[in-house]
Write a structure and sequence with these properties.
Elements lengths: L4 H12 L5 H8 L3 H13 L19 E9 L4 H12 L4 E6 L6 E7 L2 H10 L7 E8 L13
Antiparallel strand pairs: 1-3, 1-4, 2-3
Keywords: DNA-binding, Transcription, Transcription regulation
Protein name: Lrp/AsnC family transcriptional regulator
InterPro entries: ArsR-like_HTH, AsnC-type_HTH_dom, Dimeric_a/b-barrel, Tscrpt_reg_AsnC-like, Tscrpt_reg_AsnC/Lrp_C, Tscrpt_reg_HTH_AsnC-type_CS, WH-like_DNA-bd_sf, WH_DNA-bd_sf
Amino acid sequence: MKLDKFDIEILKVMQRDATVSMAELSQRVGLSHTPCWRRVKKMENEGIIRKKVTLLDAKKLNVGVSVFIYVTLKNHTGDSLTRFENAVEDVEEIVECHTTSGDKDYLLKVIIKSIEDYEHLLKSTLTNLPLVDHLSSTFALKQVKNTTELPL
């Protein structure tokens, strides 16, 4: 789908506030209600707008420890990668999983309550993920920037 300036502006507004009403959205982007609604529906149908979510404050919910973990697997057959990726899906503390280039296979982001809880997760779950050869953990000390907005 080719996006024009109105589509881009709709996406920018919705990234900042997904609860904005269609009337407010159409006013902000300079379209009438119906054409704006059609554009939003088309972008939803095309999968450009995947879903609308509520963002939570991790610190206020006492889950403010972020850990980044590089993972190296024992082998790289198609089945082993799939087994690892499927297992990652079942660990709720893993909030992101990326395949990477270079000498590491994956980068995981874990959000957890405490270092002690991470140690338990590491020993009980992460080291037992399929075909894990090596894990290297780094704790985030301070979050300098946090945005959910894509640069459009």
